[in-house]
Every structure is written in C-alpha cells, then in structure tokens.
Amino acid sequence: MPAGTDSASVKYSTLLIDSLRLPQRFVTFPRDLHVARTLKSHHQGISIKSEFSMRTFRWLGLWIIVAGSGFLQLQGFMQLGADEPAAPARPRVTVRPRIKLISPPVKVAQPASSAAEKPAAKSKPAVEIAVEEAATIKPGAEATASHEQIAAVEVKGEEGSTLQTLSCTPDGKIVGLVAPGRYAPIGVTGKSAASSEVRLYSGEGKELQRWSLPFTGQSVGVGPNGTIYVAGDGRLAKYSADGKLLANVEVPHLAEALKDQEGLKKKAEEQLKQEQLSFLNSKKVYEQIVKQLEENKQRSPTEEQQLKTYKNYLENFDTNVAARTNRKIDDVVKQITSRLRMINGIAATEKDVYIACGEMVGYGYAIWRMDEDLANPERVLGPVSGCCGQMDIQARGDHFYLSENTKKRVAQYDRTGKLVSAFGKSGRESDGLSFGGCCNPMNCRVCATGDIITAESEGIVKRFSATGEFLGLVGYAKLTGGCKNVAVAASPKGDRVYFCDLPGSRIIILAAKKAEAAGE
Fold it and tell me: Is the full-model pTM beyond 0.70?
C-alpha cells in the first residue's frame, strides 16, 4: 500500500468506486448501498489486495459530492444507460468490490503516524469491503486452448448501431444482430433509436445477406430447423432461414399485463414501498460510516474530507429521497412496463420458444415459454437474479439453460422450470469449474454435440460436457470494457467458435488448432 494511504481510506474509496458502477437492478445512487441483501449475492468473488493513491481519493470525493446533490440517475441501467467505458486491453481489466455488514459497528483503526504515537487497536469496521479482480486464466493456459483466433470481422451499422449479439444456424452461418445499445433511448419523447437489422455471414465471416427489423432488436436465437427468432422492445419476430418474415407479434404476456391496469398499479405501489425500504437501509449505512469516522480521533486529511462529504450527503438525504419516492403511480407503471419490453435473451427448441425479460416487480428476471407460433405464453421461472443487465438463455430438447452470473454457474432446467442440474463455482482464476471476476459466466451455448460452451466478460471461452465436466479452454480473446453481452456460438462440428466482441463491434472467429483438427 502506498505511503500515506490507510486501510480505512481504501475501504471508503472502494465504496465510491462501486457506487458509480451499478448493475441494472440499482436505480439510483443510494440504492447500491442496500448492501445487506443485494450485493451479498451479487459479488461472490475472492477478496484481494488493492492499492489506491491519495490522488484517486480526492477525485472520488468530488464524485460523491455530485452524487449527493442529485441522486445520480445512472445511464446504462433501467433502460436508460450504456455499457461501461472501455479500458486498456489487459488480462486484468476491472476491479469490483463486495460489501458485507458486521454488527455492532466498531472503530476504524488508524495507523500510528510516528514512532512516538501509540498505535490504535486493530478492529474490524462495520462496513467491510473486499476488492475483486476481473477473471483471468493461469499463466501459460492460453497455449493449451483448443482453438485460436483466425479472424475478427468488423461490423458497422448505421446511426450508431453496432453488433449486439450473435447466434449460429444449423448449417454453420453466423447470425448477427446489429442494433443500438440495449439501453439506448427507446420510446423516449424526442429521441428515436437507430435502425436494427439481422446480418448473415459465412463461417469465414463473409457477409451473405441482411434485412431490417420492424422494431429495435435486443436478442436473437436460431431454432434447430434454421428458423431465426428476434426479440426486442416488447416484440417477437420469426423469420425463415432466408430472411422471410413469418410472424411479428407483441410479447404475449406484455399485452396481458397492459390490459390489467389495476394490477399494474398495485405492483407499482408495492415497488414504491420496496424502494422506500431500500432508501432507509441506505441511510443507515451512511450513518454507520459517519459514526465510525467520528469515533476515530486520529482521522487523516482524506477521512476528514470524507466525513464532511458524508454529513453533507445525509443533510440532503431526506429531500432527495422524497423526490424519488413521491413519484406518481403512473410513472412507476411506465418503469415496470419498460422492463417487460426489454428482452434479454431468446432461444428455441423443436417445440418451444423461451425468452428472458424483466419481472413485473423488483429487478430480477422471468423466463417465459411459448409454442413455436409465439402463442400460449407461460411463466415457468422467476425471479432469477442476474447482474449488469444480462440474463442469457439457451435451449435444447426439453431443457433450457441459464448463465446465472450472480451464482457463478450454468443451470439446466426442464421446460416447466424445475432445476435439473448446475455446474460452476467462484474462483480467483477462471480455471476448470471456477469462474473468476464478478459476474461470470455471462453467456453460454449448447452445441450440437451436447457440449456446453461458456463465455466470460474478459474473453475467456471454456467447454464442458453435457453433465458439467470441464473439458478444457477453448480460447481467450483479449477484450476491452467491463461486464457485457459476450455471446458465443459454435459451428455444427465445433471446429469454429464465434465470439461477440461488443465494445469493438466485431465477430471474433476462433478455429480449432491444426494439431487438434488433424486429430479429429
């Protein structure tokens, strides 16, 4: 730790870092401090040491003042935001904290400033924050990968549209969805989303065909017979393998929800109550931090500034909370229906079509099943937790699969929503069954062979058997940016793996290494 930096400063400043990088389920700045329940499940990683300079603390202090004056309404979440900013392409690219509460509150220890001073007794603070690195692989592990990158196809859209996700047809064509960012303004007065389209590529990355969508696309999937399904902004479309539109319908359960206005109002009232409780919990956490700082009689200049900032925040807390919780019920109803319009994932089998979307109440996800004609909807699972606005769903036979990134696992369910099996665990490195980072695996794909491929935000792709046995590292694509939709797909034989580079708007093509291919 650098000279002049104390452990308490690291803890409080790390808290500020997380407050500016919230997952989708956090609506406003203080909501990230509802740590007793949500962040405990959100960050399940391994604690590591992290160093911050005093310059970083001063910078973060300015941000907390801004947040305290206005309840920073974060872009990128609740249908109004954007992806995290790009970072240098390194194996370790992000730092994520996790928070847990310890009662009763105790003093924060301050190191002695000189040999003549009596050092303070070591004690555990009421708010303990551990820092978690991005997912990494063991040194040299990349050399063991079964595939290597042979091409990166740049995908350019119009009016800001970029590659959002991808899939693969049974005959090996790549299906790319080119659209505005998932949290770009949709249905906002005075703003219009850029156009969306589906593009077909050969397995080598050559564009073969494209067609425009009649709505803003957010997810794409391919059925076993080659039928292409696209979903977004509350609508579902079905296309033939050559791009002929077969159906374009409103998400069935959304239409039903909109009919029940009284039911929506009741759910809105319930959500407002949940938010009020969350704000109260947030206030308690701030008060606890202030108490710790006040009890520490040997505060550093940094802690003095933090104490002043937190007190100022608490002075304006009630006014700012009132502005948020005194919303009209109709405004909350619009918020609820906007989450239902967001379709995070779509997948199809021979007889079923599944979608993952927001829940009616709260910030979890629901899984709905329909028939191949996009009718007869049934909610089969929910609420399911997911972070960073991501909930990937895949399907095969009579089962569907979820990348449950808050639980560090891939879970298999039968078509009624009953858990069949799961594999994965948290680990410092992404090795074997362990998934590193804060929110992995982000995506998965069930191959024609029954094997399951997983993708992590940092570009790590691994292969597992149908029963969850680790089979090896597929590849490691060096990416920029934080948590994101790293969709992955594979050719029918598995000799090609296609990876969605969301920040770079590229399709990364991984091919089996020559030695591997020769041995097949």
Answer: no
